[in-house]
């Protein structure tokens, strides 16, 4: 799956690096063993950060900066990593969805990167473009209905939008039947920390999702 970054995104964030993981997996209900790892990370976040500091994590701050450059209010449309960490610091439980979704959330919480997770078999065409969303882009965000993606970095396949750093799309979301996974880790702060996030993703998928035939690419 080729990913092409538009010139406008490049101009807004010259340091952007994407890490992609494609693999075969088996999805299931989240195990208690995995959730123990999630709970340990929740406690770490609580011990390290205050609520008013979380948007200053370098990975989150860089994503917010790009939103502002593109004309989007990051306080109204928060990057997903920030939203997850804020949830923890506001003493709201992290939702348990499925192994694959929860793995992505755990990696995002630990790394600070917003991560797209897609069922590869639902993506239309042979390439994905990272563009700036417009008012003409209709986007049904997972669990939140229509999302105004104008001014957001927007991944698009042949049919339309599939994901932003704020939310992914219902059409290409991970389900219980997902067997081929695409993860896109958004490094708006550059390459630092991306390899660690990739390694942690592969470790978790290997332990909990029967990982096979994995491919990793960095796009600069």
TrEMBL record:
It is an enzyme of class 2 (transferase). One of its GO terms (molecular function) is pyruvate, water dikinase activity. Keywords: Pyruvate, Transferase. Its EC number is 2.7.9.2. The keyword Disulfide bond does not apply. The lineage of its organism: Bacteria, Pseudomonadati, Bacteroidota, Bacteroidia, Bacteroidales. Residues 61-210 form the B3/B4 tRNA-binding domain. PANTHER family: CYTOPLASMIC PROTEIN, PTHR39209. It holds the Pfam family B3_4. This is Phosphoenolpyruvate synthase.
């Amino acid at each position: 799956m080729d990913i092409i970054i538009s010139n406008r995104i490049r101009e807004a964030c010259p340091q952007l690096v994407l890490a992609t993981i494609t693999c075969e997996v088996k999805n299931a209900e989240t195990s208690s063993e995995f959730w123990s790892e999630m709970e340990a990370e929740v406690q770490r976040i609580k011990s390290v950060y205050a609520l008013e500091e979380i948007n200053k994590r370098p990975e989150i701050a860089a994503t917010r900066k790009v939103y502002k450059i593109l004309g989007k209010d990051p306080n109204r449309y928060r990057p997903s990593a920030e939203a997850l960490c804020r949830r923890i610091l506001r003493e709201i439980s992290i939702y348990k969805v499925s192994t694959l979704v929860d793995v992505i959330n755990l990696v995002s919480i630990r790394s600070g990167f917003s991560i797209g997770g897609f069922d590869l078999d639902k993506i239309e065409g042979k390439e994905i473009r990272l563009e700036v969303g417009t008012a003409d882009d209709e986007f049904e965000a997972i669990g939140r209905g229509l999302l105004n993606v104008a001014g957001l970095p927007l991944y698009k396949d042949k049919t339309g939008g599939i994901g932003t750093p704020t939310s992914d799309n219902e059409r290409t979301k991970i389900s219980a039947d997902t067997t081929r996974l695409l993860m896109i880790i958004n490094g708006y702060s550059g390459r630092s920390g991306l390899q660690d996030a990739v390694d942690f993703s592969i470790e978790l998928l290997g332990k909990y999702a029967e990982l096979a035939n994995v491919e990793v690419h960095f796009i600069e």
